[in-house]
Design brief:
By secondary structure, the protein is of the alpha+beta class. It has five helices and ten strands; from the N terminus they run E-H-E-E-E-E-E-H-E-H-E-E-E-H-H. The strands form two sheets. Strands 1-5-4-3-2-8-9-10 form an eight-stranded antiparallel barrel, surrounded by four helices. It has a two-stranded antiparallel ribbon with strand order 6-7.
Length: about 200
């Protein structure tokens, strides 16, 4: 298994990002990626749980530094049908008790219809993303157009394993005045949920 190096992330959401956006776009041709994802928000947790590329994909927040950067690490990438041991990790990430599982494994449809939709502590958010990725001073910088349950939002992020490089890049781009907001916080705000 390849070694996972958790990255530090600075992210914000908004409509416009002024000169910072111009500086990012002037840095070169972006790598453009489009995706459709299903975020499953838990009212009892702020872990990042989503389904992308037919995989249950979970990241958990390891720590936040003094600057406010967040260090996230993946804890699960599991395909469907998902077995009980995979579901144990999912429910732990949601901070919810295990239900009385009726199957040894769940297809995508069974997972959504039988486990997610009936649970009043879970909220499904259908998300479409168009991400424009750049490399600036070795940091990954991204501008993304996001549609979440039909609502349009925009985000900018700076990521790297070295937190000081992230901070330096944020300052270089003139982004330090923006509130740091991760995907789960932004989506919970859109859905009127407490973060």
């Amino acid at each position: 298994m390849e070694k996972i190096i958790p990255r530090w992330e600075w992210r914000t959401f908004g409509d416009k990002f002024g000169d910072a956006e111009d500086k990012i776009r002037a840095s070169g041709e972006p790598r453009i990626r489009k995706s459709e994802e299903i975020y499953i928000l838990s009212k009892a947790s702020n872990d990042n749980t989503k389904i992308r590329d037919e995989l249950m994909d979970i990241k958990t927040l390891l720590r936040v530094n003094d600057y406010g950067l967040e260090q996230w690490t993946p804890i699960l990438k599991e395909g469907f049908p998902i077995p009980i041991n995979g579901l144990a990790i999912v429910y732990k990430a949601w901070n919810l008790p295990f239900p009385d599982f009726q199957r040894d494994e769940y297809t995508f449809e069974q997972f959504i219809e039988e486990l997610v939709k009936p649970n009043e502590n879970l909220v499904i958010v259908n998300v479409k993303k168009e991400r424009h990725g750049y490399l600036i001073d070795d940091a990954i910088v991204e501008i993304a157009e996001v549609e979440a349950n039909g609502k349009h939002i925009r985000t900018i992020a700076v990521e790297h394993a070295n937190p000081q490089l992230v901070i330096d890049t944020v300052k270089k781009l003139g982004l330090e005045g923006y509130e740091i907001v991760n995907y789960i916080k932004a989506l919970k705000r859109l859905e009127g949920l407490k973060y």
